[in-house]
Design goal:
The structure is a single chain. The protein has 14 helices and 11 strands. The protein is α+β, with helices and mostly antiparallel strands and about 350 residues long. The longest helix has 19 residues, at about 200-215. The protein is globular, with a radius of gyration of 24 Å. The model has no long low-confidence stretch (mean pLDDT about 80).
């Protein structure tokens, strides 16, 4: 199962004791493992109702009711990631309290999800997705091993981009669809990295997500051109930068390797970086130097050789590393290391 322990956990009892309002500033984690199982569906229903989301919940016959979700609210977009094992329904009682005409995209990351709405029934396999209306009766069932990514949004935000939005609901979206693959990566990273971003950055992120969802639904001709210029390049660049960060130690990291992994051309990746005013090689070099600077300035790693740090950051030539480092920071790697060693000694004296 996905590890959500990095997120601040919100107690359901504490949330119920607060005044009704928006979701807490996130991402926050909702985990009910410390409460008796029979009380969990009621607690989740009441917590959701406090922020204007109305569902009834219950356990499936063959698995205990389990909730472990990370939730983050962006302007016009609510993101939930994790596991909810049980059933959830929206009937006449829940719809009577519903004030917004929303929809959500359910992405099945693992296990099986069954959706019933408007005389349609759909069972999603691994990686598949579907859009579901939040203003119509529905029933959702997630088995005991399932994980999901849910994006809730106002229908009015996507309607101008899509012809016949309501006709696109409860339709299977294949796991291999490029826009869906980009969306999964982009949103999962944004859940962590954009929580403290300013409102302009968050609105830009939401716009890119809308573009990707519109592409998945079937956009109008004008919206398709806009999505190709805006949402899809932003999501692809974000995913490529993340992969660069994970592979900085690889001396053979190249634009050709990334193009193969992301199913695009090397030239298209180069254009993404050029639109940001730099080349691919300049970006990789800057990231490697920044990581080396962090490692050299870490007092806990002051015994590590500079050559080892350079190698760990993807530099096979120590002389080139020294020259590039000095050009970037105006000082030699050895000087940064010496400052770290002095800081380590001073810290040890204070501890004594």
């Amino acid at each position: 199962m996905r590890d959500l322990s990095r997120y601040q956990t919100v107690s359901p009892l504490a949330m119920l004791g607060a005044e009704p309002g928006p979701w807490p500033k996130g991402p926050v984690r909702f985990c009910f493992d410390d409460t008796p199982e029979r009380e969990r569906p009621t607690l989740l229903r009441e917590c959701c109702a406090r922020v204007g989301v109305h569902y009834d919940f219950g356990a499936l016959p063959d698995a205990p009711f389990h909730v472990d979700l990370a939730v983050n609210a962006f302007p016009g977009l609510l993101v939930a990631l994790g596991g909810l094992h049980g059933w959830s329904r929206r009937g006449a009682r829940e719809l009577a309290f519903t004030k917004r005409d929303d929809a959500h995209l359910l992405v099945n990351l693992r296990g099986t999800h069954r959706i019933e709405q408007n005389n349609r029934e759909l069972v999603l396999g691994d990686g598949e997705a579907a859009f579901v209306s939040c203003s119509d009766p529905s029933a959702l069932m997630q088995n005991g091993t399932s994980e999901q990514l849910v994006l809730r949004f106002p229908k009015a935000a996507l309607a101008p981009l899509v012809d016949g939005l309501d006709d696109r609901l409860v339709r299977r979206i294949p796991s291999g669809l490029p826009a869906l693959r980009l969306l999964r990566t982009y949103v999962a990273l944004a859940l962590n990295e954009q929580a403290d971003a300013g409102p302009d950055v968050q609105r830009s992120l939401v716009t890119h997500v809308y573009d990707l969802m519109a592409v998945m639904m079937g956009v109008t001709r004008d919206a398709a051109a806009l999505a190709r210029e805006r949402g899809m390049p932003a999501a692809r660049l974000h995913a490529i930068k993340r992969e660069i960060s994970r592979h900085l130690s690889c001396a053979d990291l190249s634009v050709a390797m990334l193009a193969l992994r992301h199913g695009c051309t090397a030239r298209s990746i180069q254009r993404l970086f050029e639109q940001e005013g730099m080349t691919f090689s300049e970006y990789v070099l800057a990231q490697r130097l920044a990581r080396a600077h962090d490692l050299l300035g870490d007092p806990d790693r002051r015994a590590e050789k500079i050559s080892s740090v350079a190698l760990d950051c993807g530099f096979g030539d120590l002389s080139y590393f020294n020259r590039a480092f000095r050009r970037r920071y105006g000082t030699a790697p050895s000087e940064v290391r010496a400052q770290a060693q002095c800081a380590g000694v001073a810290g040890g004296r204070r501890d004594n």
